[in-house]
Design goal:
The structure holds 2 protein chains of 2 kinds. By secondary structure, chain A is α/β, with parallel strands linked by helices. Chain A folds into 2 domains: 148 residues, D-Maltodextrin-Binding Protein, domain 2 (3-Layer(aba) Sandwich), CATH 3.40.190; 170 residues, Periplasmic binding protein-like II (D-Maltodextrin-Binding Protein, domain 2, 3-Layer(aba) Sandwich). Chain A contains 16 helices and 14 strands. In chain A, strand 1, helix 2 and strand 2 form a beta-alpha-beta unit. The relative contact order of chain A is 0.18. Chain B has 2 domains: 145 residues, no CATH class; 222 residues, MetI-like (MetI-like fold). Helices cover 63% and strands 5% of the residues of chain B. Chain B has a 3-stranded antiparallel β-sheet with strand order 2-1-3. The chains are: A alpha/beta, B mainly alpha. Chains A and B meet through helix 1, helix 2, strand 2, helix 11 and helix 15 of A and helix 8, helix 11, helix 13 and strand 4 of B. Strand 2 of chain A pairs antiparallel with strand 4 of chain B, so a sheet runs across the interface. Chain A: It comes from Hoeflea marina.
Amino acid sequence: MNTFKITAAAVLMATTGLAGVAVARDQIQIAGSSTVLPYATIVAEAFGENFDFPTPVVEGGGSGAGRKKLCEGVDENTIDIANSSSRISQGDIDLCKTNGVNEIMEVRIGYDGIVFASEINGPEFAFTPADWYGALAANVIKDGAITANTNKTWADVNPELPAQDILAFIPGTKHGTREVFDVKVLEEGCKDTGAYDAFLKAAGDDKKAAAKSCLELRTDGVSVDIDGDYTETLSRLDANKNAIGVFGLSFYQNNTDKLRVATMKDIVPSTETIASGEYPVSRPLYFYVKKAHLGVIPGLQEYIDFFVSDDMAGPNGPLAAYGLVSDPELAATQAAVAAGTPMGPLN
Amino acid sequence: MTFATPRQVFSLFEADVRTRNRNAAERRFRLYGVIAITISMLALALLLFTVLDNGLGAFRQTFIEIKVPLDPARLDPSGTRDVEAMKKVTTIGYGKVIQAGLVATLAEAGIATDDSSVRDVFNLISKEAPAQLRNRVLANPDLIGTTIDFRAFASGRVDGYFKGRVSMASAELDSNISPAQLAIADEMKAKGLMGLHFNWDFILGPDASELRPEAAGLGVAIIGSAYMMLIVLVLSLPLGVAASIYLEEFAPTNRWTDLIEVNIANLAAVPSIVFGILGLAIFINFAGLPQSAPIVGGLVLTLMTLPTIIISTRASLKSVPPSIRDAALGVGASKMQTIFHHVLPLAMPGILTGTIIGLAQALGETAPLLLIGMVAFVRDFPASPPEGFFDPASALPVQVYNFTQRADPAFVERASGAIIVLLVFLLVMNAVAIILRRRFERRW
């Protein structure tokens, strides 16, 4: 009995003793978007090599999850930076406020393109948003009336496209990429084909309902949501040679020997066409810094300065080499980061 | 009455219908068994084959050997050989030194590089090389001014070319490599400047970003996993054994102990992700332990392993014959003496086997680690224990998961390579369990 008691007491003390140790953290912790993750790891790696600070720890997990973690509080065991492929929402800002995270810095690191690609040996595609709407939407306009979508091949949608069966792998709804696809492709196409006006009429001028109808997709298996990452889309594409997949530009650039990229409105996606704004399907990438941790976590200011420096985020830096579209207004971002300007209210 | 029916005659040599049916049923059953085993063996063989086929390449890597003159003007502009001052020169500066060395080495070997730009040639070398050279020079500033033999990783695509993953045809379409670059690589290989060697850095080195898949290694993950297993062993073995001895030998049988028993059995079947949620809530949010740290991972896995250890310990305590207990009590030993001098030593092989199997299960666990921040990019090695338990680290199964998420095709090979390392670890642990059982088990 005694031995048991002693053992139990020892273990208990050991556990609580360990828990009582407060450790000052000396490395930066980052979490968030899996789209920003590769860029953040590239910068973290170079930062660890060239500075006397430890290499930051970078986690994925998704934009929303990252921002929630950032807003958990100002303790040292909360993260310092949240990567995000979409802008922070008012809900997140409110959550931050309730947990005492009052000042956040918003840093836009550049732009990310979203490309449509098929198997390398397949035919060429030249899409417009209207083509995608006509291929994937649940309801389309036919002879001026709203009818259920029965298009079988891409040629049914647009005679100029190859007569290949429609099959598309698009990002699942939990991805930030899907939001961009919805807004920049489906809604756009919905308006271009006139379907939006018809929905608006049918819904009695309810703009929200009309926009929602635009995003309704077919459920007969031609549009497949991919909840995993781009590697999954690529392997699905490998199995279904006549499918079209939706990828991030950087992923495509790393797999150009397997994928044939389609044009959108006759523009070939590249870092140049996205930077100039010609290629329509792109979005800004951000990270958010907890100002309360500046000066507390060693190297945090140096890391964010380094991230937006020309050596990293500039047009000839390693991030651009990996597929990030460099921000034309990088100089303004650098100045804001150096001055530590917190973000104002959302507009 | 049927007495008049003549007695049926059986032959021992000729089976009747019912015997034949019974024998056929048995033969069929045996066949089913063989088929079941064959299918599972085939599945296992297929799994092992794909993993080995994909992953063995990760252990060998293409290296480039060049002579690099360490230009003092560039690497130590102050001329003082003061390490602090030399740190101002970044990896970009070291890249230029390597580039110069590479061009000179190629010229010396008589490899024509006029039709491709210097930048193309430099891209044959991994982006990791400048960092390696910088560390080497900073560790030994006296090297400056001399010309050193430098062995660097070749870039991932060049490595893929020698392993058959990249071909001239695919390079034509590839934006990261051109056939001209591969032609130079071929010449360098012919001249002995480039070649495949065993890559210790895959096992010992840290993870690397997507720009340099060739440099990514498992070192941090292996240490993280080892730290966690150490914590699990130190915490769960005494806790589990103490709990099972009490429950098995001392506790009265009543409603409370029944309740505890049912709960332990249920806990063993709880999905591991639940323990991750618990760990996040208690160890990180409440106790304030750091994220991504092996200590939190170890504590979570301890909770997960405890039921397994308790169940197996109780089973092995139960399997010690009552005659041993009776004999010990009969010669006047106290209950505690009986247990600690006689029952526990005899149950030890079973306890250890159960513990190791529990540890092996914990080693392969990914889901709970997702929630406590261990699925992260960690490049710095954790310090030695006990401080190192609080430093960020990765874990082997998590590293496999991380590698599969990345865009560069070179990571496919590394993911399978990481699986091989994980399998080797599991195999060793299971082998130890078997040896312990064989060595110390006693049968009655």
